[in-house]
Amino acid sequence: MRTHSISTATALAVLFSSTVLSVVAAGPASAATATVGSPAGIVVDGVGQRVFVGDDTKDRVIAADYNGKVLDSVSGIEGIFDLALSDDRTTLYATARGSHEIVAIDTATLDIKARYPVATGVGPLYVEFAGGKAWFTYEDPADGHGDLGSIDPAADPAADPAGGTAPTTLGQLPRDSGVGGGAFLDTDPSSPGLLAIGATDFHDTAKDLMAVLDVSGATPQVAAWHDGGYSLRYVSDIDLVPGTPQVLVDGTDRHGYADGTFTAAGAYPGGERADIAPNGLIAQISGANVAVFRPGQSRPIRTYAGYTSALAWAPDASRIFALVSSPGGYVLKALTDPTLNVPSLTVNAPSTATRGKPITVTGRLSATVPLPSGARLQVTRTDLESPQGKALPAVTVRADGSYTFTDTPQAGGTVTYRAAYAGDAAHMPVSASARVTVPHATPTLTLNKNGGVHDYGTDVSFTARLGPTYKNRTVEIWANPFGGDKPNRLLKTGKVNSSGNISATVDMTRDTDVTAVFKGDTRTAPRTAKSTAYARVKVSTAVSKHYKKAKLGSTSYHWFHRNTDPLLTTTMSYVKGRKQRLDLQVHAGGKWHSAGSEYFRLGTNGKSAVRLEAPGTSGIKARMRSVYVNGSSGDSVNSTTYGPWKYLYFTR
C-alpha cells in the first residue's frame, strides 16, 4: 500500500552494481522539519503517529511526527533504499544496498536490533512485510535476473545457514522473472499474506514482471502471473487494491487477477506512482501534482501542487504524507483533507465604474465533485467607507454554476467585491475577488496671490477656497521658503468657513511656495493648489567721510573734498554666501553713464563696507546703489532688489 521512490541516478547505480551513491542536497535542511536529499522509502505508523523516511544522501532513517517535525534519526545504513514496517509496528526494516543487508530497527528507540546479510551484488532493494516475514527483492548474481528473498524475524540472526535455520532465505520467486534488477513490492492489510511484485527490464523494455504471490505459507505460491497476453506500460510502481482482486501499476493502469492470470481493468488519468489508502482512495503522483481519486473515478476529488518524489497514506486515510521538492531537498509535508474537493470560484466585475452608478458582477462556482443544489455565496464589498468589508445580500448559484448581482459603489478609489463559498461535507471553502476602480469626484481648490512681489518682512495673508466635497472640509496651508536650509512648514490646518475659505499669514522674508492641501475623503479626490510669492531683500546704504550734505538742484548730494575717499556701507538681509552688487555711475554731458559694477561679499552681520577712490578732481558728480541680483548674488532665495541711489559730489 505504499509508493516507493527512486531517482534516475539511483536506478542507474543499482543496474550497474554501484554500491555507493552520494547525492548532494540543493541546500541546508531545516533543523526542525524532516528534509532528505534523496528519498529512500516512506512508511507511516498510525498507532504512534510517526512517519519514517529514508535518506539515501546521509545513509539514515528519520522519524518525524504528523506535522513533519524531526523526532529522532539513526545513521549507518549504507545505501539505504526502502523501508517497511512489521505488522505489529515495533520493527522497521531498511534495505541497505551498499552493505548488502537488511537492517532491523526498533521503532520506539530507533536502535538497530539486527543486521541480516544478503548474498548479492545488487540489493537488497525493495522491502515489504507480509505473512510474518520481511520480503525483499534483489538481483540474482548467477543470471542477473530479479529475485525474491525473505527475513524470518523469529529465527536467530546468528544461526548457521548450513543448519537450515538461518533467518535469510533467497531464491523464493516461484518462477524466473526474466527481468533484470530488483522488482517493486506492495502489500495490503486487508489481504494478509498477499504480495504484489512488478518490474520492467531496464535494458529490454519488452520484458515485464507482474505477479501476485501468496506468502502466507512456508514458501511463496503464485496467485496470479502476467503471461504476456497483453502489453504493460513500463512498470515502475505496483500497488495491491484493497477490497478487490486488482493491482494498480504506475498509479494509472488497473489489472484484475483471477484464475492465475491478469486482465486489464481500466485506468486513471496518466500518473507515475501512487499509494492506496485502506478505504481505496488513490493518491497519485502526476507531474507537479498529487491527485486524489475515488476508486474507479476518472476525475480527482482533490489536487495538491508540488513536485513529489514519494508519498504514503496515514492508515486512517486522514492525510497523505509527501516528500515534496524544495531548494533544500525533499521536505516532508502533510496533505490534509484529501476527501474534500476544492471548488473553482470566479468573480468578474468591470475594471472601472462611475461612482453612484450601478454595476453588475458575475461569476461561476464549479467543482469536479457535484455541488449541492442552491449553493449560496456570501458577498462583501470593501472600500474606503467600509475598510473591514460590508456584507451584501447572499447570492444563490444557478444550476449551471453561474451567479450575478448588482451594486452601486458610492466611495471612490479601489472597490473590492469578494464572493465566498463556506464549503460543505464534500467541498473545501473557497473565495475569490475582483477589484473595481471608481474615480473620486474632483473638487475645486484655489489659492490667491500667486506671483506677487512683496517687501522684505511684509505679512501677507493667503486665502484658499475649497469647493463642494462629501464630508471632509479641512484644508492645510503650508509655506516652503526658497533654499534648502529652511523646512516646509505647516502654517494652518482647519475647516474652511461657510464660504469655503481659510487664510494663513506668511512673513515674507524669502521667495516662498505657499500650498493649500485638501486630503480628500471617501468620495472626493485630494487636491492641492500652489501660489508662489516673492520677497525683496532689505537693503540700505550709508555714506560717510563727506563734509556736508546739500542739494544741487532738487537732488540731495553728499559733498566730498576731491581727495577724500567716500566710504559706502551697505546693510542687506543676510544669507550665507550672499554678495551685494555695487553699481557706480558718473554724470557727464547731461546724462548718467555707467562707471562699472562689482560684487562684494556680505559679512555675517549683513554689512559690506566699500571705499571709493577719490577722483582728485573737483566738479565730479557720481551716484551709487547696492543691488541684490537673484542667482548672481550668491543665492536665489529672494527677488532682485535695487537699493536707492546715493549721490556724491566732489569739490576742492
UniProtKB/TrEMBL annotation:
Signal peptide boundaries: 1-25
InterPro entries to which the protein is assigned, alphabetical: Ig-like_fold, WD40/YVTN_repeat-like_dom_sf
Biased composition annotated in UniProt, kind: Low complexity: 152-169
Source superkingdom: Bacteria
UniProt-listed SUPFAM superfamilies: YWTD domain (SSF63825)
Listed name of the protein: Ig-like domain repeat protein
Disordered: region residues: 146-184
Keywords per UniProt: Signal
Transmembrane residue ranges: none
An annotated GO BP: carbohydrate metabolic process
